[in-house]
Amino acid sequence: MSDDSSESLLFTYFGTGSPYWKLSADSNALQLAGVKGIPNLAVALTASQADEIRAFTGVTSHAEIDIVLFGEPQRLSLVGKKDGTHSWSGTASDYMDTRAVAKDLTHGLEFAEQVISEVNSLVVIIDHNFNILRFNRLCEEATGLREEDVIGKSAHAFMAAGERDASRSNINEFFRSSVSYAVERTINTLKGPRRIQWRNKFVQSGSGPDQRYLVCSGTDVTEERKAQAKLLELATVDTLTGLPNRNAIYEKIEALLAAGRRFGVLFLDLDDFKQVNDHYGHTVGDNLIQAVALNIGTALRDGDIVARMGGASFLVLVQDTSVEHLENVALRIIDRLKAPISLGLIEVYAGCSIGIALCPEHADTVDQLIRCADTAMYAAKDSGKRTFRVFSREMDDKVAENIWLDVNLRKALESEHQLKLYYQPKLNVKTGEVRSVEALLRWDSPERGSIAPAAFIPYAEDSGLIVPLGRWVMRNAARQAAAWKAKNLNLRIAVNLSARHLTSPSLIRDFADSLHQSGGDQCLLDVELTESCLINDAASAHAVISQLRQLGAQVHLDDFGTGYSSLSQLARLPLDAIKLDQSFITAIDSNTTSQALIRSMIAVAQQLKFAVIAEGVETEAEADFLKSEGVDYIQGYLYGRPMPAKEFEDWLNNKGKKLRLVA
Ligand code: C2E
Ligand code: CA
Ligand code: CA
After folding, report:
1. Which atom belonging to ligand 1 lies closest to the Cα atom of 559?
2. Residue of 144, 146, 127 lying closest to 135 (CA atoms)
3. Domain ranges, residue 32
4. Calpha distance 188→489 (Å, rounded)
5. How many domains is the chain partitioned into structurally?
6. Residues flanking ligand 1, CB < 6 Å
7. Could you give the CA distance from residue 354 to residue 379 in angstroms, rounded to a whole number?
8. What is the pLDDT of residues 294-352, one digit of tens each?
9. What is the pTM of this model?
């Protein structure tokens, strides 16, 4: 007989190589049905053949039976299942017609596979070597792992470390005895450790001793167990990384302190983690934390403990140590984290900053110790990130200073009298007129007296206080400009804008509000920006500059020549003027290198149609040189220092007039 269904006996009589069969509970006649139009045929089965078919359950099964068909012996392969309370059905094929038999079986298998995938329970199938064979869709959802990635891996690899051995001997024992059992285990997943209740059964497929499989079906009971606050492990384990959490490491440190032991800690914080989270989303952020946790582990010796403190912060505890050893550990970790970490299609550079503190040198309580390490970590960040610092008392002074600044700057912003604007004139070289001034912030602290901007602006930038501070400056400068206009003083005021404020979403609104509140119908405010504003995101800086100009402001690039903006970048910016930095101006009349630099900067600015302002001019010789080179405006102590508004008005009436005469 051929395996080609078109030539089989079945095909001849039924018009198909795979007729449909049906058997009921009350008759041993097997009904066979072919294509439409061909009459059905009933074939008598022996009682044992009928019983064999009636043993089919809801799972697709298979039987071979010998019958006589139209006087000829025919061996049939039946694939089917129980389809009702009293009936069984499926497809029949010539047992030699392997293609048809396989097709029918495959249908049955696909159905079974789909059931495993979709069943509302975690299903894992394990072979006698403990390797995973199936991992259904609910498992994928619950663990964040993909079936294709776990197949062939040992099931033990996913067990919580403390339960691995118990589970191994359990499974061994049950493979030997083949008894079903239930057990609860903690599994490490990409979503952190989960507590799963498993019901495990053995299934034999084929006859070999190796063809026994453990079918584990599980329910996630993590939340239930947590609620029963019973699972000690969850209280001491960080759920994302499986590392000890803050509680656990604090307890360990307490114990070492109580025992009077010498030890050190490294406080580690990922650099720029927020950017990763903002840019790629929290899932990538979480995956990065997990990968970093593993990387840190590879840089440690046995006995060192790494814990997750929360966010992107970790603490490493090293016993019986020295500063040198702790520094080496820090270097190793920084080195490990230098290489990019690949997360799917994305590669992330996860540098970190590390602070080191020792017991008993730096602290004798847990809180003190962690605070010292944390302070040192911030010092490492301050000195450029991707490095480490050992705690010192001076760092504490810096922290204390920052706390003082934070508290008192906020008070200053609320009080009416502590902050003031001073105004420094800019002289138009051609006309000798003063039509514009720069507003410079002054802080008169009731506690410390006058504080220079250099002493508080950097902290204001770090802390974000620069935004309300910048808002205050704009508002007061706009009010002053309107007041001068009301007195017929024709003056524009330039305010300094920090990079941090420029990228704040409120900037344009703040600027427009201050114009609006000043009541003037004309924009009398200009803006001075530094090149640092352009570094991170030149495109959005460009957009903000355009918006400011649309509101009527001139935009000046401050401290020009000290930053790194490229000429091509500069050419694309919609600027009105550049301000040559004071460092080029000092002794310009005698310094030929500075002269060459100034000449080329002026040439570039003129080419791009930007006005040129020179600041920090202190001597007549400097002023003469700058005038001869075609600088448009000059600002500096030579003409006028920054002054309070009233003093500036007096200056304008006296000295300002004289300047006009000499120009
Ligand atoms: P800047 O914007 O470059 O301001 C110029 C600085 O040089 C001012 O120092 C000014 O008083 C000083 N100066 C002006 N002419 C001369 C001179 O002929 N010789 C010398 N030696 N210095 C001169 P100040 O007022 O201490 O401000 C320092 C920096 O603080 C400013 O540098 C600016 O970056 C920042 N700053 C001041 N006020 C504000 C503000 O309202 N907002 C922001 N974001 N920053 C401000
Ligand atoms: Ca300035
Ligand atoms: Ca400047």
Report:
1. 3
2. 146
3. 7-96
4. 73
5. 4
6. 424, 440-441, 452-454, 457, 470, 473, 496, 498, 528, 558-559, 615-618, 636-637, 642
7. 9
8. 999 989 998 899 999 999 999 999 999 999 999 999 999 999 998 888 888 888 888 99
9. 0.60
